[in-house]
Fold this protein.
Amino acid sequence: MDTDKNTTTESPEDSGSFTTVKSKKTQKRKREHDMDTVEHVASKRPQFPPISSDKLKGPDEMRKISVPAHRYTPLKDNWLKIFTPIVEHLQLQVRFNLKTRNVEIKTCKETQDIGSLTKASDFVKAFVLGFQVEDALALIRLDELFLESFDVTDVKPLKGDHLSRAIGRIAGKGGKTKFTIENVTKTRIVLAETKVHILGSFQNIKMARTAICNLILGSPPSKVYGNIRVVASRSAERF
């Protein structure tokens, strides 16, 4: 009993024993464990129920597309083809304001998709720029189509006959060059005086724009055709 009491009352220095020190590995593991718990707590995000479409709707929005004088008659002739998809499919309201000469598109209670207004305005804008209604309808049906416009003089500052020849090189004899670029790059191109409008996907617009810029800069059509076909075959292999 005496020996037991002595052992209990002895200090660690007297007995020659050492205090246990936690190793660095255990401290590191503890820190990592604490970090994991913190990350786990932080990763828990609050869950909110989806908002109904009625609450997303704000005040009615309107877009106005100005119509130049030379597009009044085509707009009047094709009004039923333009009116039907906007009202029936996109569920928007549309009218042609005779005073301001603008096509006005407005959202209403039946409008479900927020992006319908942008699609409809792009569709009307494409028709006003000179595209056929059937080609412009693709902007409503597909999401990855875009419009791009640029001036011939943006590529190279040309004047007089030089400008006329550059536009002639883009069109070709009877529109042959333009049709070839359209078919190879799967785009639609409109030449309106010095303006060039391209309708298509981002990659295809890039190919068509490069070809048109080369023609403006003076490259012969045969060389441009070859370059387009090489680029088109490479893009087809990727996809």
Q: What stands out?
A: Confidence is low (pLDDT under 50) at residues 1-10.
